[in-house]
Design a protein that fits this description.
The protein is of the alpha+beta class. Helices cover 46% and strands 13% of the residues. Helix 4 crosses helix 5.
């Protein structure tokens, strides 16, 4: 009858077990992709709802923030919020170098200047 002395786990095996456990945990946290991404839908979701409404209004004609505010009513908020969204849509830095709307004209209106905006080729889908 031979007697074996219990052995201590080697220090080399412990890091390997920890690494394997860590890989299993990371694999559970990252689900495997199922299909491909719809970049058009992702782009829509990055727009504020008021911005989507403004772009929809612009499909039929070029408009100013005042005209958009009148068309949207209470859904768009105040004129200052509508104007903010117009400026955001016209800012090329927000849209990877290409703005979604551009200034196409101005007209005097009650001692102020009304700015008229239109869709760019990027927003129309070329």
């Amino acid at each position: 009858m031979s007697t074996k002395t219990p052995t201590k786990p080697s220090a080399k095996k412990a890091p390997a077990k920890k690494a394997a456990a860590k890989e299993k945990t990371e694999a559970k946290a990252r689900p495997k992709p199922k299909g491909s991404l719809n970049y058009v839908e992702i782009g829509k979701r990055s727009l504020h709802p008021v911005q989507e409404q403004i772009l929809t209004l612009m499909l039929s004609e070029d408009i100013s923030p005042v005209q958009a505010n009148n068309a949207l009513g209470n859904n768009g908020g105040s004129l200052s919020k509508i104007s903010y969204h117009f400026k955001a849509l016209a800012d090329p830095e927000r849209w990877r170098g290409e703005a979604l709307i551009k200034l196409v004209g101005t007209r005097p209106r009650r001692g102020a200047t009304e700015h008229i905006y239109g869709l760019t080729a990027t927003a129309k889908g070329k």
